[in-house]
Each structure stands twice: as structure tokens, then as C-alpha cells.
């Protein structure tokens, strides 16, 4: 598959270069997104606006998710600050731009870093592994489940062999399955792929075919239908700018090739999927050949919808799915503040 990455130039208050941030798409606001970095940025207008820091417990390498029971809010878990790891939860309300700390009625997992925005199903966040100190992971191989509706943690009984302790892995939900790829323990980089179906809680180590990614850590992943997309990360030789697609039913990896520039290799970046309105001038045009409207002001959108009904029958508008990447860093310490997207299907 060949694709074309695009680079966005958002307006407004630009966030400082950052790493270890998570982006959670808010379904009711789509095509808007909110990054968990005390900044709010609707993709439709490409503007950044600062949220309050009041009540925020600063952190990095944390998890974020948007549960079904509170679709207008973003929850964050874990991560670390300069004094050590966290295991608390906080909630950001993007409408009021305020932070709150819910009272959880059961013991949480041990403090850890756990950088993901894709490990939630319904109201539940799933946590496996994470970082303890330096390059060492926590030795806990239990699956921890947080229910945002009941404000409780649980550790369900699982079957089979779980992945070995690791951090910097990707954990992504696709349907009722959770996939774990890669990660790091000490100086060992993993290239294995594991899966657990929450319907039977049975771990499986998969043996996929195709262009299997090399062992890496600090990469990012998103799920779109039957596909899992993985981008970036680091290996012993440096930061990656490669993207892979995994078919969850065929258990097959594909290395994606791009026609244009590739973004700089990076690790600890944020990544999510957002729909984007595309106006196609021909019914025969491929969705990737349409116009990605970067002038998404409300008036422009209204004009486009207005001409669609009474204008040329060959013009149509639909949403394409964009994989949105923000920030990260390279292995030399350079931190990025760019926003890059590519079309996924």
C-alpha cells in the first residue's frame, strides 16, 4: 500500500515541543481531538487553545482514554513526574477545561508509566505492564481493568501465558481483543505480538506472517476496523519513521510505503485517528485524491454542503480517516512539536 503523509500547520497557541503525550479523540466533537497536555486543539479549525492547569497533577508517559459513560471527558492514568511514578486517575472536561480527581474505591495498580491512548473498550481501560525505573519494567504481569462507570479496579483471572514484563510496548483494542506488540526490558527489545480476547480472557502469542516489524519500543498504535497501524518507535540503532499495518483476522503484517516525504523518526509521540471531511471533484477519484480541507471554517463547510445538493453531480463530500501524529522526540534529544497526518482505511 502506498500513501501520502500530510503536515498540518495549526493556528493559535502552539504547544511546546513535547513527548510522552496521549491523544484521545472525543466522538461527539469529531472531527475534533483533544490532546492530554493541558492543551485543547480542534482539528477542524486547526487551532490550539490552552486548558487550565488548576487541579492537574503533571505527568508524562501516561495513558488516556474516553469511556462510553463520559464521552465528553478524557481520563488519564499513571505516568510519572520528576519525583516518581503515579498510579492515580484524573479527568479533563474539554468544555470547561477543568481537571478533577475522582475517588476510586479499590486499590489501583502499582505506580508505573504506561503510554497509550488505545487500550480501552467501552467504559474500561486495560493496563498491562509499564515502566518502573529507567529501562526496567514493573514485574507485574497481571491484567488490570479500570471501570470508569463504577470507579473500580479489578484484576480478572486470565488463562494462558501472558507477555513477559515490559514497558514501552503498544497496547491497542480492536473489537473485543487487546493486542500487545514490542516493548523493552533492560536492553532487550521485543518484536513479539500477543493477544487477549476479553470474552474468554485467554492470552495467545501470535505467529504473524508478512513484513514483521523489528523489535522496538516507544512506538504508537491505533486500530481501524480489522487493522492495527503502528508508527515510529526506537530500536538499538535509533528512532524509526516506518509505519506498519496488521490485519487482525489474517494475522499478517504489511510495511506501508509512502509517495512523498517521511516525517522524522520519532519515539514517545501521540497518535490517534480522526475523520476528516473530503470534497471529491469526481466520482471516480480515490478518497486519498480528494481535497483535505485545511480551511475548515464553519462558513466554508456550509458553502460546500450548499453547493453539493444543487451543483455538479460529480462532486461529493465524505469523511476519510486520518492517522494524526503529534510530537515525540528522536534519540539525540530533539523534541518535536509538529502535527502530521496520513490517510488510513
Attribute tags:
345 residues; mainly beta; Neuraminidase; five-stranded antiparallel β-sheet; five-stranded mixed β-sheet
Give a short synopsis of this structure.
By secondary structure, the protein is mainly beta. The chain has one helix spanning 298-310; strands spanning 2-3, 5-8, 11-12, 22-25, 33-36, 39-40, 47-50, 63-65, 74-77, 80-81, 84-85, 89-93, 98-100, 120-121, 124-127, 131-133, 136-137, 144-147, 152-154, 170-174, 177-181, 184-185, 188-189, 193-197, 202-205, 209-210, 220-224, 227-231, 234-235, 238-239, 243-247, 252-255, 257-258, 270-280, 291-292, 316-326, 339-344.
Uncertain spans: 25-41, 283-309
Overall pLDDT level? 83
Instruction: Output the structural class.
Output: mainly beta
Strand order, largest beta sheet: 2-37-36-34-35
From the 3D structure, determine the CATH topology.
Answer: Neuraminidase
Report the end-to-end length measured between terminal Cα atoms. Answer: 11 Å
Q: Output the CATH homologous superfamily.
A: Kelch-type beta propeller
Number of domains: 1
What is Rg?
A: 20 Å
Largest sheet: 5 strands, antiparallel
Query: Total strand count, please?
Result: 37
Which helices and strands occur, and which strands form pairs?
Elements: E1 2-3, E2 5-8, E3 11-12, E4 22-25, E5 33-36, E6 39-40, E7 47-50, E8 63-65, E9 74-77, E10 80-81, E11 84-85, E12 89-93, E13 98-100, E14 120-121, E15 124-127, E16 131-133, E17 136-137, E18 144-147, E19 152-154, E20 170-174, E21 177-181, E22 184-185, E23 188-189, E24 193-197, E25 202-205, E26 209-210, E27 220-224, E28 227-231, E29 234-235, E30 238-239, E31 243-247, E32 252-255, E33 257-258, E34 270-280, E35 291-292, H1 298-310, E36 316-326, E37 339-344
Parallel strand pairs: 1-33, 3-7, 26-32
Antiparallel strand pairs: 2-37, 4-5, 6-7, 8-9, 9-12, 10-11, 12-13, 14-15, 15-18, 16-17, 18-19, 20-21, 21-24, 22-23, 24-25, 27-28, 28-31, 29-30, 31-32, 34-35, 34-36, 36-37
